[in-house]
Amino acid sequence: MEKLVGGEKLVGTDKPARHALPDPDFWRGRKVLLTGHTGFKGAWLLHWLEAMGADVTGCSLPPEQPAALFPLLHSDNRLAGEIADIRDAHELNNLVERARPDIVFHLAAQSLVRRGYADPGSTFATNVAGTNNLLQALAEVGTARAIVVTTTDKVYRNSGDGHRFRETDPLGGHDPYSASKAACEMVVAGWRGRFEAAGCGVATARAGNVIGGGDWAEDRLFPDAIRAWSRGEAIAVRRPLATRPWQHVLEPLRGYLVLAERLASGAALAPAYNFGPTEDSATVRDVLALAASHFDGAGIDWAESPDGPAEAEALALDPSLAASDLAVSGLWGLEQTVSLTARWYRALLNGGAARNLCEADCNAYVEAASGADR
């Protein structure tokens, strides 16, 4: 993974490079706490951090899916001592005390809208109380110099008019998941002053809809499609005209890494950043039509009317603040993002190694960012 560890240096500069990449010199040997490291995004981020030489401690529940990405990329041995429930304050305190991290990425969450409807109590307990537990433990240990808490593009009060949300727009939530993530933002705001007084930068990161190889969660578009098509079945689509700010998983992860570097440097930054595509949001129909072109006989059953609990029909982000403050903006358009994701799954189903596939995507992404700056 030699290409993956190249990047622009940001620490100590007033303005980052035009297309910033994480600096491997910053991360080499750095003590990092990564919650949610067994999840889809967490496994990718752990892979990137360790490629740059970071000393990462994970904190997560065991992988949910039999085909989860984490065990394909990381040895089962690294789970020892890293399985913890953020709802258990005592258990979490012990893990944070052992880790004594310098940088923290908080990704652990209940992240599914429909599961939020089915189990709102657990959703709020994880996303709100769990975040508070983590911040309290970090405050007591006092070693952190940068904390990035990931929430979602769904934290905004959505009237359905399709406008691009900016970080200063009102927060809200019309379903338990969205509301729990908006409440998570409030928890972070309540702790921010204490951390900043101790010299620790804190920010939330609101990412658009993420796709990429290795996601097998239920009720997510690409995993559901791959499961159906691999069985020779059609995928049933509930809301084909719903629009979302789709992006490859590496796009927001790059943002999280650069944001953490800047926070640790003491830079004056906003309390929250959107990470999403520079192009307009696309419909579910658009994404699936592109994906289906990569699979022979891929069937799609379009619903005539929405099925299931209510979800926002239109969602879009304005990522311009991350572009101006962090030099982080989308590199891969929708067609390339879908193509790379489809090829990843096809290669895995044909016997390819997940680690090799992830490394290839990571290296291609770093090359794209480096080339865009020339």
UniProtKB/TrEMBL annotation:
Residue stretches making up the NAD-dependent epimerase/dehydratase domain: 32-267
Entry EC number(s): 4.2.1.45
Keywords (A to Z) from UniProt: Lyase
SUPFAM superfamilies xref list: NAD(P)-binding Rossmann-fold domains (SSF51735)
Family, similarity comment: Belongs to the NAD(P)-dependent epimerase/dehydratase family.
NCBIfam families in the cross-refs: CDP_4_6_dhtase
Protein name per its UniProtKB record: CDP-glucose 4,6-dehydratase
